[in-house]
């Protein structure tokens, strides 16, 4: 591509921001006839999954991530209370709302059901309108809380993770790296001459440029555990678990090259006619980089060196 006006990179869609998506429902009951009754209530406007045992229900919750589970209590082997306990104990399934649907409807059972984490408790035989209404309420609440959680951790301009998420992950990964004696690296990335870019092309085009730089940097990551976040303004931060300095420096060089390869015109830059970035790399070291604060401070110091040596380069 030639140096040209930047294209607007699409902001990634939210997984939960799809108002027309059919909600996924998991119906769990050891009696097929009970499953059938609930299936008929929801099949028309939901994507329905079915399980006839506790272990099958747990597996489906992990693989299908339903928006809600309708859960029988009395089942051979693992009963519904235990299924609910296990769902709530696993961070990957803890947020899925559970409604017990059971013939076993004394107050003690209902109390236990709510205590193990269910949001509601419905007696069999079911009234379709009541089940439908209660499911609708909890599916809506779940969608709203998913959306909130998403925006707490995602940068609204670029669609990559934000500083809050980066800081939390950094603390977690630092703890893990110290415990396991593994490597951990950070790259701080700053767009070169971005104030002149805004002055020359205007803020709107500046925003488009940031979106494009963000998606280019994110696409340059190699492993699922790697993280690219917007650190602030025109700065990005990359977290690389189990990556020593040599690997992080190599990736930093590649990321800088990827941004350059986008050939986003920058007539006001003093380093090239296109948008470039400077990168500072640092890795955990027992002697000199022994705290999270030192890791980020040293990456920032290396970024400063990259700037002072002429920009459009990585130092570490
Ligand atoms: P250097 O090469 O030394 O990094 O120079 P610079 O001009 O990039 O450095 P400076 O920190 O002075 O400028 C950063 C600019 O980034 C200033 C600010 O207006 C701009 N900026 C920060 N956040 C945003 C944003 O969200 N959108 C836009 N369009 N510009 C932003
Ligand atoms: Mg049963
Ligand atoms: Mg800056
Ligand atoms: Mg800058």
UniProtKB/TrEMBL annotation:
Catalytic activity: 2 GTP = 3',3'-c-di-GMP + 2 diphosphate
Enzyme Commission designation: 2.7.7.65
GO CC entries: plasma membrane
BP GO annotations: cell adhesion involved in single-species biofilm formation; negative regulation of bacterial-type flagellum-dependent cell motility; phosphorelay signal transduction system
Keyword terms: Phosphoprotein
UniProt KW DNA damage keyword: no
Domain GGDEF: from-to ranges: 182-316
GO MF entries: diguanylate cyclase activity
Domain Response regulatory as annotated: residue spans: 24-139
InterPro entries from the UniProt entry: CheY-like_superfamily, Diguanylate_Cyclase, GGDEF_dom, Nucleotide_cyclase, Rev_trsase/Diguanyl_cyclase, Sig_transdc_resp-reg_receiver
SMART domains: GGDEF, REC
Pfam family, one: GGDEF
Listed NCBIfam families: GGDEF (TIGR00254)
Protein's recorded name: diguanylate cyclase
């Amino acid at each position: 591509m030639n140096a040209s006006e930047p294209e607007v990179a699409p902001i990634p869609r939210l997984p939960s921001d799809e108002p027309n998506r059919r909600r996924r429902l998991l119906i769990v009951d050891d009696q097929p006839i009970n499953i059938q009754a609930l299936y008929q209530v929801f099949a028309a406007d939901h994507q329905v999954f079915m399980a006839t045992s506790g272990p099958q229900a747990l597996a489906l919750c992990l693989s299908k991530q339903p928006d809600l589970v309708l859960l029988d209590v009395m089942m051979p082997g693992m009963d519904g209370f235990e299924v609910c306990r296990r769902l709530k104990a696993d961070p990957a399934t803890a947020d899925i709302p559970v409604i017990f649907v059971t013939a076993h409807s004394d107050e003690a059972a209902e109390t236990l059901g709510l205590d193990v984490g269910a949001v509601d408790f419905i007696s069999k035989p079911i009234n379709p309108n009541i089940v439908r209404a209660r499911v609708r309420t909890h599916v809506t609440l779940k969608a709203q809380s998913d959306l909130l959680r998403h925006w707490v951790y995602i940068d609204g301009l670029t669609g990559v993770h934000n500083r809050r998420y980066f800081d939390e992950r950094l603390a977690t990964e630092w703890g893990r790296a110290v415990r396991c004696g593994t490597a951990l690296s950070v790259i701080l990335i700053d767009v070169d001459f971005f104030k002149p870019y805004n002055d020359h092309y205007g803020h709107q085009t500046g925003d488009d440029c940031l979106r494009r730089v963000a998606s280019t940097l994110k696409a340059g990551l190699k492993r699922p555990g790697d993280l690219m976040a917007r650190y602030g303004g025109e700065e990005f931060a990359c977290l690389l678990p189990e990556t020593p300095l040599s690997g992080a420096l190599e990736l930093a060089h590649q990321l800088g090259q990827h941004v350059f390869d986008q050939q986003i015109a920058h007539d006001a830059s003093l380093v090239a006619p296109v948008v470039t970035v400077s990168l500072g790399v640092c890795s955990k070291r027992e002697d000199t980089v022994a705290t999270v604060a030192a890791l980020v401070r040293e990456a920032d110091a290396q970024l400063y060196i990259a700037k002072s040596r002429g920009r459009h380069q990585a130092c570490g």
